[in-house]
Design a protein that fits this description.
Number of helices: 11
Number of strands: 0
Helix content: over 70%
Shape: flat
Radius of gyration: 32 Å
Structural class: mainly alpha
Amino acid sequence: MSAADKAKHLLANADQTLQQYQVKMEQKRHTTLGLLFKPFPSLTLTKIASERRNIEKLIKDGRGQKAIVLTNQLIELAFQGLQYYHAYDRFFLGLSITSSFIGWLLYLLTLLLGDKYKLTELDKINRQATDKVIELFFLVISSAVVVLLYVQSVPLMYYIYSLLPLILWFLVSNRYHIIKTTIKQMSRKNALELAAGLLATEVMVGSFFYRQLLSVGLLCLGLWPLIAALACGTSDKPVCTKWLVSCITLAIFPLLPVVGHRANYSLVLLAGLILVVAVANLISRLAISIKIFQLKHK
């Protein structure tokens, strides 16, 4: 088969891919407000027509290899465009889901702290006036969101994604006084504990992508009793030392190579040996503790 024939067949494949691209683009244009729609900048309809004319001219002139190169580039751009429109609403949906989770967590927090903080009569009067403003604000925003979604003819699921964070944040706003009071009464120790909890959560999330972060978290966890002992002025050195050694030992495992197609039997045997020693040590200590307890209560 000549280069020209290969280029013709490849151009036919490109046409099919471009048809899918144009259908996807029109679907997204139909469900997006005209002012907000952003087409894929690297592959406009004008560029598609221009590139096809150029490729057909190259085939007609007998420059098949050059036509094949340009056709492959056009197909690659079409695939990038399809990916662009597939992920077109990803940022909006991700922002909606994230704000919903944060709103839900804050609302649960206000429910847990609600019984602790009681409002005075003056606070209740001031809150009633503030609540009316909050209700009006969220009513206007929700109405605007519904109108925008209706104009764009989006699926029903988009209404849920868009209105759910507004509902949750409305509930949180109605109980903002609890969060405000909590922040005012929060001590430096409470703030540090909150920051440590958030940092530990981020380390756990990051460990899904970088396993080595687990080692960092375990080392920090190993130092925790020592830092707490220094802050309180008391310490149990044997317990703190054993805890630190245990955390350091456990921190080694995330740094070890990932088990692939070939099983590393040496590491498996080493892990099994460590487990047996740890369990034996635990059983022996438990037996000693039981004997001491029995002797004391005879």
